[in-house]
């Protein structure tokens, strides 16, 4: 192994560790919001706080879904099989990071965690 190979290997290790640290600890916005979208329309949107517990009932064609909020995380509480036959949305579990989502395709339901910055302009071009 030559000196150049060692330098390249060290550079790759440093870049990899930096990206891992940034993904794990960096830039978590405190202004996280939960957006509940049904059939392309926003049906519910609220701020996500760390020390908060509440439940929302979502009326959907397949039945009633309970959206559970606890300690800065969100999930759909398991209910009857008639609401969601495959139960994928229940098995997704808790989501808490920006960009994560719960999707229930049979009921056309999407629950996303977004930042308040996504509601505004993200770029301007001339």
Written description of the protein model:
It is a single chain. This protein has 2 helices and 7 strands. The termini are far apart. The protein is elongated, with a radius of gyration of 20 Å. Strand 6 and strand 7 form a beta hairpin. The longest helix has 23 residues, at 3-25. With 126 residues, the chain is α+β, with helices and mostly antiparallel strands. The strands form 2 sheets. It has a 4-stranded antiparallel β-sheet, with no helix packed on it. The chain has 2 domains: 1-28; 32-116, mini-chromosome maintenance (MCM) complex, domain 2, CATH 2.60.320. The mean pLDDT is 84.
How many distinct beta strands? 7
Largest sheet: 4 strands, antiparallel
Alpha carbon gyration radius: 20 Å
pLDDT < 50 stretches: none
CATH topology descriptor of the largest domain: mini-chromosome maintenance (MCM) complex, domain 2
The overall average pLDDT, rounded, is 84
Give the SSE string. Answer: HEEEEEHEE
Global morphology: elongated
CATH top-level class of the largest domain: Mainly Beta
β-sheet strand percentage = 35-45%
Q: How would you classify the helix and strand content by structural class?
A: alpha+beta
Helical run tally: 2
Task: Report the CATH superfamily of the largest domain.
Answer: N-utilization substance G protein NusG, insert domain
How does CATH name the architecture of the largest domain? Sandwich
How many domains? The number is: 2
**How far is the first residue's CA from the last residue's CA?**
50 Å
Major sheet: arrangement of strands? 2-1-7-6
Helicity, as a percent range: 10-25%
């Amino acid at each position: 192994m030559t000196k150049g190979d060692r330098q390249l290997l060290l550079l790759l290790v440093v870049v990899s560790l930096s990206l891992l640290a940034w993904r794990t600890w960096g830039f978590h916005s405190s202004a996280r919001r939960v957006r509940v979208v049904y059939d392309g329309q926003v049906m519910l949107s609220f701020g996500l706080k760390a020390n908060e517990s509440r439940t929302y009932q979502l009326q959907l064609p397949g039945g009633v879904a309970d959206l559970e909020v606890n300690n800065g995380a969100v999930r759909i509480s398991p209910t009857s099989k008639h609401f969601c036959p495959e139960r994928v949305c229940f098995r997704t579990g808790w989501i808490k990071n920006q960009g994560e989502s719960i999707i229930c395709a049979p009921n056309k339901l999407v629950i996303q965690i977004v930042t308040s910055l996504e509601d505004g302009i993200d770029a301007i071009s001339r």
